[in-house]
Each structure stands twice: as C-alpha cells, then as structure tokens.
Amino acid sequence: MQHGPAVRRRKLGAELRALRTSAGLTSGEAARLAGWHQSKVSRIETGTSGVRPADVRLLLDVYGVADPQLRELLLVLSGTGDGGDRHHWWHAYRGVLPPTYRDFISLESQASAMRTLETTVIPGLLQTPEYARAVTEAALEGASEERLDTLVEVRLARQDILHAEPPLELSAVLDEAVLRRQVGGPGVMARQLSRLVEAARLPQVRLQVMPFGAGAHIGVTGPFVIFSFSRTSDLDVVVLDHLTSSLHLERKEDLRAYSEAFNTLSIHALSPEESLEFIAGAAAGA
Q: Which domain of life is it from (predicted)?
C-alpha cells in the first residue's frame, strides 16, 4: 500500500521490463542501445528511481514499441504524456490541485474502465455543478470563493471523459445513503438525482443502488475505486481516499480482493433497471 507516484514508478518499471523481454534483449543490451550504464535500466525497472519522459521514449524506441496508446499510457505513468489535451488538461491547475488529486486524474484520464463504491456522496464524474460546489465547500471549510470555483471547474472538466472516444466505462454501486443525504438542500438534491437518472441511461454508465434493506455489506468499510486499463491488466490499481491523501493498492492479491468485493456488491445491489426506478423515485420525493 503506497502513495500514487511510487506505485506508478513500479508499474512503469514492470511494464518496461516485460517489453524488454518481449524484444529479446537483456538489460545490458538495452542499456548499450540506449547509451546508458546497465544500472540505470535496472533502477528504472525496479522503480527505485524516477524516470524522465525522454528516457521512457528512448526505451520504447529501443524496444520497437509503436503502439501510440501504449506509449501514451506509459508516458503518463512517468508523469507526463503526448496524447493531447484529454490526457494533461489538468496541468493548467497544478498550482491549485494537490499532487494526490493530480495523480488520481491522470489515472482516470488513461483508464478504460472505472469501478467504484460510493457510500457518502455522488461520484464526482456524475455531479452537477451546484452539488459539486456544496461537497467541495463542506470538505474545504474556509476555502476562498476563487479556490472553490476552480475546484468545481476541475471536477466538471473531469466529466468529459465519459463522452470521449472511446469513453470511460463507469460502473458504480451507490449506498442508499448517497441518495438520501441532503447535500446543498432539497433543490440541489432534486436536480442531482435527476442528473443521475440521465446518466444511468448512458450505455457507458452502469449504476446500482445498495438499499438500506440489504443490511450490512462488504462495502461498509468504506468507498474505493478500481481503475482498469485496456492495454494491460498489470497497470490496474485500487485507490482509497483519505482526508489528506490517497493510497494506491497494486498487489495482485489486493486487486483480486477488491474486484471480488465489487462483484459481491453488484450481486447484492439492485439491478441497473431496478436502480434506475429507485433513483427516479428518490428524485420525485426529494
């Protein structure tokens, strides 16, 4: 269990090692072709040191990796990317966003799928502007109006990924408490729940509600997010949010445990069709 940057270094190193092996090169041969000492390749592959994007590009050239999506994903893991505004638009907010939040957005922007359990608030990708502001204001008591405006702007910009080509596939299990908590007041909640109904009808969004009647469930320990990547499952990661930081889980046993937990939640929650009716009913009574 580590913070995002360390996890990304290790994942990047593991993927580069696999690509080197597929290219039929030893670490010494790769270092010679790159014009480096062998120890540099070893440090990169073990994740013990940071790596510049230019070094990643050079290694990918040495290994004959031409796939633009794979190259972009690995460059994002190194801390940047070449893939256009979709993948680094948040750089304009570097002075405002905490590093852990930037790290989360970078993973989100590259993921092909996102599975999340939410127990307290509507997922950020589905929030209305006024709901997002109410949540942000509550989380950052005393923040200036300017900072609140900026953070809400970022949250709304993140939502573009649901309409990108291809879009992020979002699967979310929402505890009923998420729908009942009066964030921002009845008017804000009514409009937010109506927005959820609209989102639930999108082909790339799957929403399920865990009703109070289901009793205790495996998700009572807290919310989590699982990011999956189409090019390689080795880059999948679980993100756990805390008040002042985020933790990333990368071990296969952790990924398996959280994937099984999400599957269990999906089985015991209302079906997407039942959930849509439930949310619509909650919106009507908000």
A: Bacteria
224 strand-pairing partners: 117
Residues 6+ positions from 30 with CB-CB distance below 8 Å: 20, 23, 41, 59, 62, 63
Q: How many residues does the chain have?
A: 286
| Model pLDDT for residues 21-61, shown as the tens digit of each residue | 999 999 999 999 999 999 999 999 988 877 888 899 999 99
Question: What's the pTM value of the predicted model, to 2 decimals?
Answer: 0.79
Q: Do the Cβ atoms of 109 and 76 come closer than 8 Å? A: yes
Instruction: Return mean pLDDT, the chain.
Output: 87
- Residue pair 126/196 in contact (Cβ under 8 Å)? The answer is yes
Paired sense of beta strands 237-241 and 224-228, if any: antiparallel
Alpha-carbon span 93 to 150, nearest angstrom: 8
